[in-house]
Amino acid sequence: QVQLVESGGGLVQAGGSLRLSCAVSGGTFSSYAMGWFRQAPGLEREFVATISWRGGITNYADSVKGRFTISRDGAKNTVYLQMNSLKPEDTAVYFCTAGGNTAVVRSGDGNYWGQGTQVTVSS
Fold first, then answer.
1. Which residues touch 62 (CB under 8 Å, ≥6 apart)?
2. β-strand 78-83 against 18-25: which pairing, if any?
3. Which residues contact 119 (CB under 8 A, 6 or more apart)?
4. Measuring CA to CA, which residue among 68, 70, 79, 65 is closest to residue 30?
5. 105 φ, ψ (degrees, to nearest 5)
6. Would you say 50 and 33 are in contact if contact means Cβ atoms under 8 Å apart?
7. Dihedrals phi, psi of 31, to nearest 5 degrees
8. Which of 12, 51, 52, 82 has its CA 20 to 30 A from that of 58?
9. Distance in angstroms (rounded) separating the CA atoms of residues 17 and 103
């Protein structure tokens, strides 16, 4: 059973930074493309970023491009989302997801999802 566990969320002032982590267990981490999504209250879940299984290809939503960086560490079976220059509109629950390739992950059809971690950005 593959499990994804997010951590690193919290409350931060606008302009600040946070790093989210997603630890993967129960599967072969290196075989999955990974991604991050977020969902704000009353809104649909939206794509944030993906990273290929080797880590060489990344993709970002326009709203976070230049501010967020996705990365992965195969030795730790963990994917990260470094978030800089945070804005109040980044406030959401952030979810980690895994799938067979980045197109599947980006479409929201990843096979596995974490439970989410709350990020709140105050103005």
1. none
2. antiparallel
3. 9, 10, 12, 18, 20, 38, 83, 86, 90, 91, 92, 93, 94
4. 79
5. -65, -45
6. yes
7. -95, -5
8. 12
9. 28
Half-sphere exposure of 45 (CA within 13 A, CB side): 16
At 106, which helix (H) or strand (E)?
helix 102-106
Amino acid at 118: Q
Portion of the chain with pLDDT greater than 90, in percent: 92
Q: How many CB atoms lie within 10 A of CB 19?
A: 13
d(CA 36, CA 48) in angstroms, rounded, equals: 5
Q: Express each pLDDT in 19-34 by its tens digit.
A: 999 999 998 888 899 9
